[in-house]
Amino acid sequence: MKNPAGRKVFREFLRCEYSEENMLFWLACEELKKEGNPDLIEEKARFIYEDYISILSPKEVSLDSRVREIVNNNMKSPTQHTFDEAQLQIYTLMHRDSYPRFVNSALYKQIAQLNNNSESGSDTGLEQRSSSHAKLPNQ
User: Fold this and answer.
1) Are 6 and 134 in contact, with CB atoms under 8 Å apart?
2) What is the average pLDDT across 98-113?
3) Residue 27: which region, alpha, beta or left (left: phi > 0; alpha: psi -120 to 50)?
4) What's 137's DSSP letter?
5) Residues 6, 44, 97, 88: what is their CA dihedral angle, to the nearest 10 degrees?
6) What is the pTM of this model?
7) Which CATH code for domain 4-134?
8) What per-residue string of b and e applies to 50-78 under the rule 16 or more CB within 10 Å gives b?
9) What is the mean pLDDT of residues 21-26?
10) How high is the pLDDT of residue 23?
11) How far is CA 120 from CA 109, 129, 135, in A?
């Protein structure tokens, strides 16, 4: 998740699996954490809530009732950390569910093969985007 090229490939995989909203939510939470302006924090938090938490959203992420309640309480006074519990739950879901499927996918194997070819002499710069960089970091 830390490597932009790896994130891009994983996001494409999620898009094909109709679960791209998990990555988009995770990225939106990361952006919120960088915000320092209280007015913008509230605005971004409401946007994230409406886009990914609201049961009316077509991009709603799957959260358990405990985490959903925490987020609802946090939304009374949003901060950069309003979605921390939800973000962790979605990260864990991607790490345990989507990522193992990604590693076994044709897309991943194709990228790994390209990386192996580039390492064996024809340096096309693909090792910069190697499969090892696509891995989600262990927590």
Assistant:
1) yes
2) 88
3) alpha
4) P
5) 100
6) 0.76
7) 1.10.167.10
8) ebbbeeeeeeebebeeebbebbeebbeeb
9) 96
10) 94
11) 16, 15, 22
Domain assignments of the chain as residue spans, ordered by start:
4-134
> How many Cβ atoms are within 10 Å of 114's Cβ, its own excluded?
17
Secondary structure of 100-118 as H, E, C letters: HHHHCCHHHHHHHHHHHHH
Per-residue tokens: 133: 């960089």
Q: How far apart are CA 53 and CA 34, in angstroms?
A: 20
In terms of residues, how long is the chain?
A: 139
107's CB contacts (< 8 A; 6+ apart) are 9, 12, 13, 16
Q: Which residues contact 70 (CB under 8 A, 6 or more apart)?
A: 85, 86
| Residue 34 tokens, joined | 């960088």
pLDDT in tens, 57-73: 999 999 999 999 999 99
Which pLDDT band, with edges at 50, 70 and 90, does 3 fall under?
confident
Q: Which residue has the higher pLDDT, 76 or 132?
A: 76
